[in-house]
């Protein structure tokens, strides 16, 4: 059984927690302008920060290929699904940062002021902000479907998929690359 590296497993579960927490702390439209949800910004930006070492670790071989995948289309579908999740993990924080800039809100991360990604506007913050709001909820549905598929693999197909992401039985990077 090939597992993900410890660092990838830690980042996977931390990211999942941060995404859910970002969703719970989100504020839309007028509320966001009057009383900016700074905690939402911090949680969301942490997602963006964590995706960088995670993708690097992936390129360095910390994402084990499925040994003997049960079918080629299933392997491809899993890769496509994970790619979509990664795209959301990058696009959501960036579009939120853009939306905050359009609303004229200063975005900072752990006390560090970040530059605005767009000039502030008086009215509605625009299409990208709308996409951010919709995408912010869509990622939870996608992650829910992803979790159900992982559970189905584990208990119906019995191929040990959940074990690959189990923090309690994590191997180190070297072992996972054996
Ligand atoms: C917001 C929540 C979540 C996000 C954004 C997310 C994202 C991801 C991504 C991007 C990968 C691909 C890793 C890679 O190969 O580079 C992955 C793998 C995985 N995730 Fe999640 N995940 C979430 C929640 C969950 C939950 C709740 C479960 C379990 C119930 C789960 C189980 C797994 C498993 C088992 C793998 C490894 C799949 C494999 O071996 O191919 N994830 N996740
Ligand atoms: C994984 C990360 C994120 C998720 C899941 C997420 C989710 C959401 C959701 C669901 C909403 C809509 C809330 C509502 O309508 O009541 C929202 C709004 C908003 N988010 Fe995020 N967000 C994330 C990251 C960020 C980041 C990093 C920033 C800024 C740095 C940000 C800034 C905003 C702003 C300004 C709004 C209001 C947009 C508007 O009124 O048009 N978000 N977010």
UniProtKB/TrEMBL annotation:
Residues 3-165 form the Cytochrome b561 bacterial/Ni-hydrogenase domain. SUPFAM superfamilies: Transmembrane di-heme cytochromes. Signal peptide: none annotated. The chain crosses the membrane at residues 7-26, 38-56, 76-100, 138-156. The keyword Iron applies. Coiled coil: none annotated. It is found in: Cell membrane. InterPro entries: Cyt_b561_bac/Ni-Hgenase (IPR011577), Cytochrome_b561_oxidase (IPR052168), Di-haem_cyt_TM (IPR016174). One of its GO terms (biological process) is respiratory electron transport chain. One of its GO terms (molecular function) is heme binding. The keyword Electron transport applies. It holds the Pfam family Ni_hydr_CYTB. One of its GO terms (cellular component) is plasma membrane. It is a multi-pass membrane protein. Keywords: Cell membrane, Electron transport, Heme, Iron, Membrane, Metal-binding, Transmembrane, Transmembrane helix, Transport. Its cofactor is heme b. Belongs to the cytochrome b561 family. PANTHER family: CYTOCHROME B561, CYTOCHROME B561 HOMOLOG 1. This is Cytochrome b. It comes from Mesorhizobium atlanticum.
